[in-house]
Specification:
The protein is an all-alpha fold and 115 residues long. It is 49% helix and 0% strand. The termini are far apart.
Length: 115
């Protein structure tokens, strides 16, 4: 039986060779592991995570509902850009907000604000 696809399925990507923990962390902070699922090796032994780290990870990824009114054009543009990147538009918008927050903190710290 032939599989019918939408034509929008993601191609399997190869995990790049990265040097250093910072480069690896930056890569995975900005990429979705599911895009690289087929390139990962199966691991039989369980991975043990420190309970404190596990708690920090869970707390970091908790989300709350926020209602935000945007112009229709902004939503359309965000959806188009997200589609080109192969991610959801809400994921893209969260990334934009996070980048803006980081930039603001960086700018504010150098200007002596938000001390």
């Amino acid at each position: 039986m032939k599989r019918i696809t939408s034509g929008r399925e993601k191609k399997a990507k190869q995990i790049p060779v990265l040097k250093g923990e910072k480069a690896i962390a930056k890569f995975w902070d900005t990429h979705d592991a599911t895009d690289y699922w087929n390139a990962m090796e199966k691991v039989d032994e369980p991975i043990v995570v420190d309970p404190r780290l596990e708690r920090r990870i869970r707390e970091r990824h908790q989300k709350r509902l926020l209602t935000l009114r945007l112009e229709q054009g902004q939503i359309i543009d965000a959806r188009r850009i997200a589609a080109r990147k192969g991610i959801g538009y809400q994921t893209l918008m969260r990334a934009w907000i996070q980048a803006g927050i980081q930039q603001e903190w960086k700018t504010s710290r150098t200007a002596g604000k938000f001390a």
